[in-house]
Amino acid sequence: MSTGTRSAKRAIQIYRKARGILEDPNAGLDPDDRYVLELRAELDKLEANMAWQNGKPGRALFLLTSHVERAQRLIEMDPGLPRLRWMLARGASVRANVQRDVGLLRPAVESLRVAVEAWRLLREMEPDRSEWRREWARSVRLLASALARVGEWQESATLHDLSVEVMEAMLADGTLDQTARLEIGTQLLDAAEGQLAAGHLKRSRELWKKASQRIGQRTPSKRKRKAWFVAHARAKVVEAELLLAEGRWPRAESRALEFLDEVQVHAGNGNDLTLRRETARAMLVVSSVRALDGEVEVAKDVRERALAIAEELLEESRSEPASLALRARILFALGLDDEVVKALDELDRYAYRDLQLRAVRAATASMR
User: Fold this and answer.
1) Residues sharing a CB contact under 8 Å with residue 295, sequence separation 6 or more, in sequence order
2) Model confidence over 246-279: pLDDT tens digits?
3) Closest by alpha carbon to 50, among 11, 6, 23?
4) CA-to-CA distance for 223 and 218, rounded, in angstroms?
5) Residues sharing a CB contact under 8 Å with residue 124, sequence separation 6 or more, in sequence order
6) Which residues does 240 contact at the CB level (< 8 Å), separation at least 6?
7) Of 247, 274, 33, 187, which is closest to residue 259 (Cα–Cα)?
8) C-alpha distance across the termini of the chain, in Å
């Protein structure tokens, strides 16, 4: 199959021709015909992808919303057709991704709820289809992460547990191969971070241990090498933050420095967005320990280098709330309270309420 520029141009020509026929009032097509409606829905999603690739997120969201609404209408026409539930689940998930990427965090949560429900109904309709169970579990994980971003940490924690339970059961009965251990481990890290942010250190430690066991000490396959390294490295940062919260300062710094050394050795992975963000987090841990030991200038220097990383990330994507939140934490550590308030105001516009910022918000509440 050709996948070059000529093939892409041909695909666009075919799309435009199909759209033209559907929009032609003289074509004699019934707009309420199920097959016409389904084709319109598919074309909406195709055009949304093109709009996103061309830097038009607003247009992409408009078309994805149209796609989801048409999928819902199709289900009303024929609620017993699994293909239509699949269309709705995938379309709502894609819309949630776009909403998240442009900072529409609350709408992203609602889109994911639509997706989770669609996958749930597919599980009921075809209980022997293992892929529906896996897709439901993955969608629940995405919803859990989205809820954490808007501050709904209790529901987030519950959903993480439900998703992991299903994935673990599928791994145990052989439905999933051993490479799924990495996926489960990564989700357990998400859950451990949530519990840490909530101040539940014992539960966070339990989840971190399970995550480390699932991630393992070596990549499960060559294809998963980069994903494994990112998860393995991230686990060190999460533990460093956990050790710091537990008051085990020397070990916290040691773990953070271990992460920084590993990233430097594996320089080929250094441009990964997650690793760069984790590098700044590890620097925050090191700076906290240095400050506790009275090395104020060293701590300031490390924090300023962490801030430079956060600023660089934001230059690439200004609407990325996780990077904005990281920057707010670093500014707070540097004592730049006026800048912290501005950063929190910007995060509020995105409805970002992750618990990692709870202490920062409490400390600056009187200034806002």
Assistant:
1) none
2) 999 999 999 999 999 998 877 555 567 889 999 9
3) 11
4) 12
5) none
6) 252, 253, 255, 256, 259, 282, 285
7) 274
8) 58
